[in-house]
Sequence to fold (237 residues):
Amino acid sequence: MYCRSCRYPLSNVRGTCCPECGRQFDPADRRTFARRQWRLSIDHLVRSILVLTALGSLTLLSLSIWPGALADLVFWAVLSSILWLPISLIAFIILAVFLFRRHRQGGLLRIPKWQVAAVPTVVVVTLVLLFFYVPRRLAFLLSRSAFERMAQSAPPPGTTPVNAWLGTYWVDEYAGDASGTVFFSVHSGSAGLGPDVMSYGFVRQPSQQSTPFGAAGYRVFHIVDDWYWFRVSDDWF
Ligand SMILES: [Zn+2]
Fold:
């Protein structure tokens, strides 16, 4: 039994008045006192959601620097959804009920408006940055000179191991042809549940319809000048 206002322990208090703050209570009426000493502060809750949103956003933006990393994350998230989906659903319902009850008590009005606006703002800004691949473009621009130097060395047809950092990117292999096209593979991941391997990387002057890493689902996305990033499955059809 604790004071509803100041959480002073009331179990050993004589009378019906909190010695700390003077609030009235009636031991026979549980609505007049609190049963737990701790109180989930709505300010802490909103701030925690804000911090978690910001951390999640930074994680996604950092991962998006590497072609294929987010695709792998989505794949594992879907695969493990049987675990985290029910847990997050329950957490969301508890949170919604808590917020609704506090809202009826007028508690939500105390939260600074910028904190309420910050969560959707962070989410929208993150989605826009991800949609236009802004982190990846910036990271590639910073790494571009290393890629240019490597591309000058005119790689032989077929794939040649690189196994070195070119700027921000760890490059496994590269491959080129006479037309000036040079592929750099920076990541390989699973293509869903099938046996195929997806390769991701950067390509200068893409001209052909296939790559040294496969041909299926081959797509290029422009970055700057004659540089693109690509993804392709090792399935050849
Ligand atoms: Zn009190």
About this structure: The first strand starts at residue 160 and ends at 166. The chain has five helices and six strands. The chain has three domains: 1-39, 40-132, 135-233. The radius of gyration is 28 Å.
